[in-house]
Amino acid sequence: xxxxxxxTLGTAAxxxxxxxxxxxxxxAPAAEANADATPSATPAAALAYVPNQRAGTISVIDTxxxxxxxxxxxxxxxxxxxQQILPGPSGHLYVIDAQGHRLLELDTVQDRVLRSVDIxxxxxxxxxxxxxxxxxxxxxxxxxxxxxxxxxxxIGARIATQGQAPEHCVYSPDGALLLTSNEGxxxxxxxxLKAGKSxxxxxxxxxxxxxxxxxxxxxxxxxxxxxxVVDVIDLVARRRVASxxxxxxxxxxxxxxxxxxxxxxxxxAGTVSVIDPAARASLAEIPVGQRPWNPALSADxxxxxxxxxxxxxxxxxxxxxxxxxxxxxxxxxxxxxxxxQ
Length: 341
Description:
Elements: H1 2-8, H2 11-37, E1 47-52, E2 57-62, E3 67-72, E4 82-87, E5 92-97, E6 102-107, E7 112-118, E8 123-128, E9 135-139, E10 144-149, E11 154-160, E12 166-171, E13 177-182, E14 187-192, E15 197-203, E16 208-213, E17 219-224, E18 229-234, E19 239-245, E20 250-255, E21 262-266, E22 271-276, E23 281-287, E24 292-297, E25 303-308, E26 313-318, E27 323-329, E28 338-340
Antiparallel strand pairs: 1-2, 1-28, 2-3, 4-5, 5-6, 6-7, 8-9, 9-10, 10-11, 12-13, 13-14, 14-15, 16-17, 17-18, 18-19, 20-21, 21-22, 22-23, 24-25, 25-26, 26-27
């Protein structure tokens, strides 16, 4: 285009074009400098989701401001007995509706149910495999685990537990095993997923509930509600190797990424125990709301979020100072907190 322009433009016009180009070249470094000086957009903070059992709603918390952004209800289709939820891709949530005996897939942007599958009576816990290609649902009332394909949203297998009333379930970091905490028989099932069956149980101190794997992939920490301790399980040896005292009615567990801290929510005491797993001792017991249940750590580990079931709130704990810094009002009977990392 420029050669043609040279043939048609006069000398004066050409001079003006060249002068304009020179000005643009001179201005470019300044523009680049200004662009470099402009701070990049701050990444959005992770969202925390809180299923409110009795309200049939899910509170969405901005972990940057620690404020409720919105409350999801799917126009009343979530039921009045919400249990554990699981963040999925594209802003979706997987929700256990124990009242309707269903697992739901919820679009959080449109606040509507996309799909559902019948999972039977009294399901509570749900976990995702490390590769995200499978869900496991613990069905207390049927003493079994259901394995669900997230693509087809269909039940692929049903595995009977040897223990009674499996409540929570967790995958091993390598995805080979699935553990269930069996509150009815005071033990853990160890399920070999390749074989598709339970290979045995591990006895615990009393009424196991929340569980978390240490980074080594072998050590498991299990909240023991009746015993008010955190059991330490050696998965290779298939036995309990220690019990660390916590507060009354220990229910939920969270562990830091490096494994240096274990947090246990104590439903009867209204506290959170901060445990040093190396010393196998409690460092602090932090007062929170009433009946704290299932906690979650922020991605950087600086804050712990704990659902207070009878206070209808979520406590925010500064893990450095080991103090509660805020309580966030949510819906009726919050079950726990999960954070979309």
